[in-house]
Specification:
This protein has ten helices and no strands. It is mainly alpha-helical.
Length: 283
C-alpha cells in the first residue's frame, strides 16, 4: 500500500515538474520575445517562402522551424504569439477566478436567497453553448484583446462558481466551522479565515485549468479572425494559415499546434499537481 502511494507521489511529482518546466519556458519566451526571437515576426520575404525546418533538406540557416508562405519565420511568430496567450491566460483567468469564486463562496456559505439567485443565474448562463456565446459577445463588443478577455470572463465564471459553491457547502459542515461560530467569529471572518484556506487548493487547480481554457478560446477566436488584428502573430491565426498549406508546408500548422497543446496540457497538469501536493485532504 505504501509502495503504491509512493509510486503515485512520484508520478504526481514528475508531472508537476515537467509541466512547471514547460510553463516557465512559455513565460520566459513571452517576456523576452523581442530579444530572443531570431527574426522580426512580421518581416516578409517571398523569396524565402515555405522554407522547411532546419533539419529538413532545403532549409536555410537561421530559420529553425522554417517559414510560412510569406517568408515569415515560424519560430519568431510562435514566440511572439506566446505573449498574446500569456496576457489572455493571466488576465482572463484571474478575473474569472475572482468573480466566480467570490459568488460561489457567497452562495455556498450564506445559502438562502443568495444561493437560490446565484444558482439560477449559473443554470441560465450555462445553457448557452460557450463557443457560440463567445463569438456572439465578440460580435457585440468588437474585435480586440480586451473584448476577448471580457468574453472569456463573462462566459467562464460559472465554472468557478459551481465548483467553489459545492466545496464551500462541504466545508461549512465541518466541525472547525462550528467551532469558529461558537468562538464568536463573525460570518465574514469564518469565511475568510476558516473556509477559504481549505477551498484554496481547489481554486488554484481551477485557476490553472482556466488559464489553459483561456488560451484555447483565444486561439479559436484567432482562428476565425475574431481576436486581435491579423497583423499580430497569434497561435490560432498561425494554425488557420497553416491549415490552408498543410500539404506544401506542414510545419506552419504543426509547430503552433504543438505549442498550444503543450501549454494547455501543462496548465491542467500543473494545477492538478499543486492540488495533490497542498490539499490537506488528498495528502
Amino acid at each position: 500500500m505504501l509502495d503504491g502511494r509512493g509510486s503515485i507521489r512520484r508520478r504526481s511529482g514528475a508531472r508537476l515538474w515537467l509541466s512547471a518546466v514547460w510553463l516557465t519556458l512559455f513565460v520566459l519566451a513571452a517576456l523576452l520575445a523581442p530579444w530572443i526571437s531570431p527574426h522580426d515576426p512580421l518581416a516578409q520575404d517571398l523569396m524565402l517562402g515555405r522554407l522547411p525546418p532546419a533539419w529538413v533538406a532545403g532549409a536555410e540557416p537561421g530559420y529553425w522551424l522554417g517559414t510560412d508562405s510569406l517568408g515569415r519565420d515560424v519560430l519568431s511568430r510562435i514566440i511572439h504569439g506566446a505573449r498574446i496567450a500569456l496576457v489572455v491566460a493571466l488576465i482572463a483567468g484571474t478575473a474569472t477566478c475572482l468573480l466566480g469564486s467570490a459568488l460561489g463562496m457567497v452562495a455556498g456559505f450564506y445559502r438562502g436567497w443568495a444561493d437560490r439567485l446565484i444558482s439560477r443565474l449559473v443554470d441560465i448562463w450555462m445553457a448557452f453553448p460557450p463557443v457560440l456565446f463567445a463569438i456572439l459577445l465578440i460580435a457585440v463588443l468588437g474585435t480586440g484583446l480586451t473584448s476577448v478577455i471580457l468574453a472569456i470572463v463573462i462566459i467562464d465564471w460559472t465554472r468557478f462558481c459551481r465548483v467553489v459553491r459545492a466545496e464551500t457547502l462541504n466545508q461549512s459542515k465541518m466541525d472547525y466551522v462550528h467551532s469558529a461560530k461558537v468562538a464568536g467569529f463573525t460570518r465574514l471572518r469564518t469565511l475568510a479565515t476558516e473556509i477559504l484556506p481549505n477551498v484554496l487548493p481547489t481554486i488554484i487547480a481551477l485557476l490553472t485549468l482556466e488559464m489553459g481554457i483561456a488560451v484555447i478560446v483565444e486561439a479559436i477566436l484567432s482562428f476565425v479572425n475574431l481576436s486581435i488584428s491579423t497583423d499580430q502573430p497569434t497561435w490560432g491565426g498561425m494554425i488557420a494559415e497553416g491549415r490552408t498549406s498543410i500539404h506544401q508546408a506542414w510545419w506552419v500548422l504543426v509547430f503552433p499546434l504543438v505549442a498550444l497543446f503543450l501549454t494547455v496540457l501543462s496548465f491542467a497538469q500543473f494545477g492538478d499537481g499543486l492540488r495533490e501536493r497542498f490539499d490537506p485532504v488528498l495528502r
